[in-house]
Amino acid sequence: MDQYEPFVIREAINNCIAHQDYTKGGRINVVEMEDQLIFTNLGSFIPGSVEKVVKEDSPEEHYRNRFLATAMFNLKMVDTVGGGIRKMFNYQRERFFPMPEYDLSENKVKVTVIGKVLDMDFARVLARNPNLSLEQIIMLDKVQKRKPLADEDIKYLKGLGLIEGRKPNYVISAKVTASLSNEELKVHYIKQRGLDDEHYKKLIVEYLKKFGESPRKNIDKLLRDKLPDILTESQKKNKVTNLLSALRIKGIIRNKGYSKWFLV
User: Fold this and answer.
1) 101 and 10 in one domain?
2) Which UniProt keywords apply (predicted)?
3) Most buried one in 36, 47, 100, 179, CB count within 10 A?
C-alpha cells in the first residue's frame, strides 16, 4: 500500500501551481523526508483560514491565478474546483494519519503531509468513531501534536469525553482508546482502506482457476465484503469493473458476452 494517497500529492502540488504568486519570481518546492512531504509556494493563503475551507467545503470565490486554475481543471489536472483540501483531510483520516498541517506565515503557504500514524491513541479514536466530524478530528489532531487549543474547543472536547488532563497538557482520553488493540486497529484500517489492487486481482484469478468460468454477479459477491467499507455499493461495483478490465487488458482473463468471465 502506498505511503501517501496519490490524490493528496496531486492536490498539494496543483494547489502550489495554481496559487503561487508568480510576481515574486520564486520557486515551488517539494521536499521528501522519511515520513513526510513538504510543499511550499509563495503568496498568502487567500481564504485566510484552513479550518474555514474544510468546514465550508465550497469552491473558492477568489483565485490568485483564475485563468490558470480554470485551465488546469479543463485539462483534468485537478479533479474538482474547490473541495480538494477537504478531500485531502478525509484521505488522511481514512488512513488514521495526522491531518495535513498548514503554515501560513511569512507570506507563503507550507503544507506538511505525514505518511504514518503519529499517535496510536489518535488512530484508535478515528477507528472507533467513524462518525466524528472533520472539525472534531482537526481539534484532536492538535492534541496529538501538542498544539494549543482554544478554550471553547477544550471545553467541547472534554464535554464529549475525548480528551482529559489539565492545561496545557491535554491527552486523548484513555476511555475511548483502551479497548482497541494494535491488531484490532490493523483490522479497522484494512476494512476502511482496503488492500491493494493486486490482492483483489489475485483473488479473482484464483477463483476462476478453481471454478472455471463465472458470472459477473459471483465475482461481485466474492469481493463485496473484502472491499473497503468506505465505498458505496455502486463504487464497489465500479471497482470490480476496473479490476476485471485491468486483467482483461493484460490478457489474463476474457469475457463471454457481458456476464461470463474465464481465464485465457
Assistant:
1) yes
2) ATP-binding, Helicase, Hydrolase, Nucleotide-binding
3) 100
Range of lowest pLDDT (92-96, 166-170, 198-202):
166-170
Domain that residue 134 falls in: 120-182
Each residue's pLDDT tens digit, 24-64: 999 999 999 999 999 999 999 988 888 888 887 666 667 78
**CATH code of the domain containing 15:** 3.30.565.60
Burial of 161 (0-12, 13-18, 19+ CB in 10 A): exposed
Distances from the Cα of 46 to the Cαs of 3, 65, 108, 195, in angstroms?
A: 30, 11, 10, 37
Spatial CA neighbour of 109 closest among 37, 16, 18: 16
In the block, residue with C-alpha cell 459477473 = 216
Last residue of a domain, one of 75, 93, 114: 114
Query: In residues, how long is the chain?
Result: 264
Domain tally, the chain: 3
Is the residue at 130 inside a domain?
A: yes
pTM assigned to the model: 0.68
Q: Are 171 and 209 in contact (CB under 8 A)?
A: no
